[in-house]
């Protein structure tokens, strides 16, 4: 049993996104001995590239499972082309508008009803709603992926979000009305989002950061958005190896996933981890990294784990943030890196592929720039 994970190039210039193609099973055998999974499809223009990648490198037009981690455009928009042009058996996607029962009581405006919130979610998450309708129209089995959901006799399993956690996040999604209990945490997230939107348009002011081995330049505060934390976190276990896919999940969701891993009786060892949210500093912290990977190690000591972030060619210093890559390296993953507008293939017991070669690990950065 082998696998190959292709983290594809997504977006142009500084707009990062996710499109991941996976094949596992007997990769030296026939298509019937293999399972093909797609996790996210990038922007609209990335969908055709993903289709062609599967056809060219996996030698098939049949996809067993497509997973939409969350409805941000840099993850979901390309999946419409995948659904349209490939033969997809099953689609995993959250249908937020189906979780509107009792939701109205969360909001200050007394005129809001459960029905109106359901319609608002359809409008706000239009890409997701249309994708579900498209899939159903083609006879594809559509399922909502919550903790414990599995595929292929448990080889693929959802670690987060739980149904309860997902429904707790919904009132905090972007574009929702003001809640009765607008928490400081949500205000901080809104302020952070506004600040990011402003700085994205403004000229970037950079400052120099000096790093020391083993000292993470990260904190344990979860400041990512509710929608990001709703990302489907999935594990794939192949031949005793755990492969972890995180979408744009933040620290809270990652800790929930770590709880599930703690109870897993498979004995599988982590061998691959998708660095969440293109390597954003807001989505990862020392404590959750210690849970998922282990404590920092001495210089030169290595763990047999690969970690990859999908980032645009000009995404730095935000995507990826060097402090995030350094934190993975502190934990014995010298090959932790970002795609930076290219594609990276991680594989085990898989045939060689012409034009794809091993990557040289990037050196540890003792000094780097970050946004001031």
Automatic annotation (TrEMBL):
<dbReference type="InterPro" id="IPR001279">
    <property type="entry name" value="Metallo-B-lactamas"/>
</dbReference>
<protein>
    <submittedName>
        <fullName>MBL fold metallo-hydrolase</fullName>
    </submittedName>
</protein>
<dbReference type="InterPro" id="IPR036866">
    <property type="entry name" value="RibonucZ/Hydroxyglut_hydro"/>
</dbReference>
<dbReference type="Pfam" id="PF00753">
    <property type="entry name" value="Lactamase_B"/>
</dbReference>
<feature type="domain" description="Metallo-beta-lactamase">
    <location>
        <begin position="32"/>
        <end position="111"/>
    </location>
</feature>
<dbReference type="InterPro" id="IPR052159">
    <property type="entry name" value="Competence_DNA_uptake"/>
</dbReference>
């Amino acid at each position: 049993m082998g696998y190959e994970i292709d983290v594809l190039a997504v977006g142009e210039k500084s707009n990062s996104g996710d499109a991941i193609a996976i094949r596992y099973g007997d990769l030296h055998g026939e298509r019937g001995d293999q399972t093909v999974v797609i996790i996210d499809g990038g922007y609209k223009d990335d969908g055709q590239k993903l289709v062609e990648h599967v056809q060219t490198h996996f030698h098939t037009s049949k996809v067993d499972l497509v997973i939409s981690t969350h409805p941000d455009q840099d993850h979901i928009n390309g999946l419409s082309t995948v659904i349209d042009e490939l033969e997809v058996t099953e689609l995993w996607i959250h249908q937020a508008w189906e979780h509107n029962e009792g939701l109205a009581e969360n909001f200050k405006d007394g005129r809001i009803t459960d029905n109106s919130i359901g319609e608002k979610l359809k409008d706000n998450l239009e890409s997701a709603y249309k994708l579900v309708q498209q899939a159903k129209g083609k006879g594809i089995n559509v399922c909502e992926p919550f903790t414990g959901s599995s595929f292929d006799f448990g080889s693929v399993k959802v670690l987060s979000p739980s149904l309860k956690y997902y429904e707790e996040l919904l009132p905090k999604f972007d574009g929702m009305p003001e809640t009765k209990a607008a928490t400081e945490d949500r205000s901080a997230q809104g302020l952070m989002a506004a600040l990011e939107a402003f700085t994205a348009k403004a000229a970037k002011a950079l400052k120099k950061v000096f790093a020391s081995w083993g000292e993470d330049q990260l904190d344990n505060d979860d400041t990512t958005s509710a929608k990001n934390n709703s990302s489907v976190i999935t594990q794939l276990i192949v031949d005793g190896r755990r492969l972890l896919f995180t979408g744009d999940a933040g620290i809270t969701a990652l800790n929930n996933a770590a709880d599930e891993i703690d109870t897993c009786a498979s004995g599988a060892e982590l061998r691959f981890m998708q660095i969440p949210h293109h390597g954003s500093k807001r989505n990862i912290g020392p404590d959750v990294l210690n849970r998922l990977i282990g404590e920092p190690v001495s210089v030169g000591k290595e763990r047999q784990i690969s970690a990859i972030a999908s980032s645009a060619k000009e995404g730095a210093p935000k995507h990826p943030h060097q402090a995030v890559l350094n934190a993975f390296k502190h934990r014995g993953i010298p090959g932790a890196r970002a795609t930076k507008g290219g594609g990276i293939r991680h594989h085990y017991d898989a045939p060689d592929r012409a034009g794809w070669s091993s990557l040289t690990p990037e050196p540890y950065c003792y000094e780097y720039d970050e946004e001031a």
